Amino acid sequence: MNSLMREDVEERRKLTKIIAQTSRLGNYTLGRAFEKEGLPISREQWDVLVMLWEKDGRAQQEFATFLLKNRASITSLIDNMEKNSLVTRVPNPNDKRSKLVYLTRRARDLKDQVIGIAETSILQITEGIELKDIQFAVDILRRCLENINKYHKQIIED
Question: Which Gene3D superfamilies match (predicted)?
């Protein structure tokens, strides 16, 4: 491999490394913000809550697909949310093998507080970055996701 190709690969490696670091630390930051307010909500649980606030009564598979997690991981995630009185599961009337996940009264009551905490964290994480730069970054990351899906579709479908 020539030096120009190595330099190109090195810069692209830096991108993938910073994506991973930003994801880990962003998730940690959001989780800590919830924790400081006494809320038993992780980053992944936040995603589940947002999905349920948008449309209550979803099948667990929807969360697995969105979060790119296997069934066992989603079951554990939902179990923990159920223990913290955030969700409840009921049999799916259209498919007896699955259950639908619904928000509890507690989760509905916490919506404004939780969204406020998340928005504050997001603004802190993106402080000093102009909206046009955020939109550009989103475009780049969306193209990275498209490439992952294009070249490694089997990973996403597992």
Answer: Winged helix-like DNA-binding domain superfamily/Winged helix DNA-binding domain
Is the pLDDT at 51 greater than 70, yes or no?
yes
* pTM, rounded to two decimals: 0.83
List, in sequence order, every residue forming a beta bridge with 92; answer none if it has no partner: 95
pLDDT per residue over 113-142, tens digit each? 999 999 999 999 999 999 999 999 999 999
CATH code of the domain made up of 3-127: 1.10.10.10
Cβ proximity of 52 and 101 under 8 Å: yes
CA distance 18 to 46: 23
